[in-house]
Design goal:
4-stranded antiparallel beta sheet; 0% helix
């Protein structure tokens, strides 16, 4: 019932910037957290950044100071501003949304968007 559509990925040179967007649609009751994960070739999926309903944020150590997560509640959209990109940031980035309804939590994933950092 809930779908997440990601956009904004692409090819960028080291030191460049990209902004990822993830729009949630469908029967959404109460989002408790939205975030971004990434998976590089040969590696496990890892949390990049997350923002809770309280607006508190968490970042992976590798992206602190370079990435910024934000959201637009009216649009049910979460963004990831990525600056000072490094080749090691190359990965497929997945949007994640956690929802709470009647004391149950649900989780949804986007389709993934490729980010490639290369000169």
């Amino acid at each position: 019932q809930v779908q997440l559509v990601e956009s904004g990925g692409g090819l960028v040179q080291p030191g460049g910037s990209l902004r990822l967007s993830c729009a949630a649609s469908g029967s959404i009751f109460s989002i408790i957290a939205m975030g971004w994960y990434r998976q590089a070739p040969g590696k496990e999926r890892e949390l990049v950044a997350a923002i809770a309903s309280s607006s508190s944020t968490n970042y992976a150590d590798s992206v602190k100071g370079r990435f910024t997560i934000s959201r637009d509640n009216a649009k049910n959209t979460v963004y990831l501003q990525m600056n000072s990109l490094k080749p090691e940031d190359t990965a497929v980035y997945y949007c994640n949304v956690k929802e709470e309804y009647s004391d149950y939590r649900y989780e949804y994933w986007g389709q993934g968007t490729q980010v490639t950092v290369s000169s």
